[in-house]
Specification:
53% of the residues lie in helices and 10% in strands. By secondary structure, it is of the alpha/beta class. The strands form two sheets. A six-stranded mixed sheet has the order 2-5-4-3-6-7, with helices on both faces. The chain has a two-stranded parallel ribbon with strand order 1-8.
């Protein structure tokens, strides 16, 4: 189905969407003890077919990304809502579902917190990624359910504080509805993928998601403070580091989102102003918030630690990466690489349009950049394919793009532009 046909179908389905207000079997009781969990394990082990899975976190409220509710649904078992605070070990459920395909929407968001409680899919179907490969213009769960199945989901509680106990009934209804139609959505999208000749591509993508190792902790995570680009001096960067680390310790101890302890904007202002006294600190506009003022002595000590550091211990202005420099510098630093990048992007964009999917799903932008910056010494379809695989491209991507990319780079050489 082309983009215009998809959009037309979407408008038609959206106009006639049926509100989905309640789960078919009602709202199940929350599983919050071992006995109830054992009953769920037995029911889901006896069920058939794929298992719909979702998780709710408390992003913006609590420290980290742990799950505060896990929802599952399977044919023959119905829906289960599990409290992973009360039942933190779901490895028994995982073992019972070892042979089942798990269906998630935007799996990359939930897999880490599911792994923390012992749920690790061996087979995966990601309905969001399937929608991207099929060229759907909107791939949120609500949009996909509306466009593909013709139902309207209530999405009002996605940003709620799911660490709340007890969870309100309307939140539980919302959570149950998130998995109510996920299997039906999976089946419809699998059929579309097969008809479009993209099912094998999707299966490779799903397998790649499961094979991706957990992200290693970022070195110097304080460098990701929003607005840190305004901080120039090394002494001021040391303030960002010291205050960020003090905030992180407090946030972890209090189990709060770091931004609720002290906003990033306050860290940057402390670095730029470097107050010396409590009065100077409290005069800052970012310190008017009661939460920020509550720990004023912590922030002042952090600023003073940075002020007292010897020069040799101050952070450098930027941290070298392991990849190419920012692309806006290529024209000056390596004009030939800039030309290769432009040619490669043109090829990928054209192929993505031909196959009705976003360019970033046809080939990851970082792979395109790295290939353009450091191409093989001899450019052929085989060498380009090998380079793409080494950079993490999947086989289906290599089959589609290696030869066109090689031809484009060879044309640049033939024109004497490289």
């Amino acid at each position: 189905m082309g983009v215009s046909e998809t959009e037309a179908a979407s408008e038609s389905a959206g106009a006639d969407a049926v509100p989905l207000l309640n789960p078919r079997e009602g709202i199940p009781p929350v599983v919050a003890d071992d006995a109830a969990l054992e009953r769920v394990i037995e029911m889901f082990a006896a069920g058939t077919g794929p298992v719909a899975v979702d998780a709710e976190r408390a992003s913006g409220y609590r420290y980290g990304q742990r799950a505060y509710l896990v929802q599952l649904r399977r044919q023959g078992a119905g829906t289960a809502l599990i409290d992973p605070v009360a039942c933190p070990d779901l490895s028994g459920l995982d073992a019972a579902l070892a042979d089942a395909e798990m269906v998630l929407h935007a799996a990359g968001q939930d897999l880490p917190c599911l792994a923390e409680v012992g749920l690790r899919p061996r087979r995966l179907f990601d309905t969001e990624l399937a929608g991207r490969l099929l060229g759907y213009p909107k791939v949120g769960l609500g949009s996909m359910v509306r466009e593909v199945l013709g139902y309207a989901l209530e999405k009002g509680h996605s940003a709620a504080d799911w660490s709340t106990r007890p969870l309100p009934e309307d939140w539980l209804r919302y959570a149950a509805l998130d998995v109510e139609l996920l299997i039906e959505l999976r089946d419809a999208l699998a059929g579309e993928l097969e008809r479009a000749g993209k099912l094998e591509w999707a299966l490779e993508e799903f397998a790649a998601i499961l094979a991706t190792p957990p992200k290693a902790p970022r070195p110097d995570p304080w460098r990701r403070t929003s607005g840190v680009h305004r901080v120039r001096g090394r002494r001021q960067l040391a303030v960002v580091r010291e205050v960020w680390e003090a905030r992180d310790r407090l946030a972890r101890e209090r189990d709060l989102s770091p931004g609720r302890v002290l906003p990033d904007a306050a860290i940057v202002q402390l670095a730029l102003e470097m107050p010396k006294t409590p009065a100077e600190l409290l005069s800052l506009s970012s310190m008017r918030n009661r939460g920020a003022r509550r720990h004023q002595s912590v922030w002042l000590r952090a600023v003073n630690r940075a002020r007292a550091l010897p020069d040799a211990e101050l952070p450098v202005p930027s941290q070298p990466g392991d990849g190419p420099p920012p692309t806006h510098r290529w024209a000056e630093r390596d004009p030939e690489a800039a030309k290769r990048l432009s040619a490669a992007r043109t090829v990928v964009a054209a192929l993505a349009d031909e196959h009705t999917m976003p360019a970033e799903n046809l080939l990851q932008p970082d792979v395109v950049r790295r290939l353009a910056w450091s191409p093989p010494a001899e450019v052929t379809p085989a060498t380009i394919g090998g380079a793409l695989r080494a950079l993490g491209a999947r086989d289906w991507q290599v089959r589609l793009v290696a030869t066109p990319l090689a031809k484009a780079l060879i044309r640049l050489e033939a024109k004497g532009e490289l």
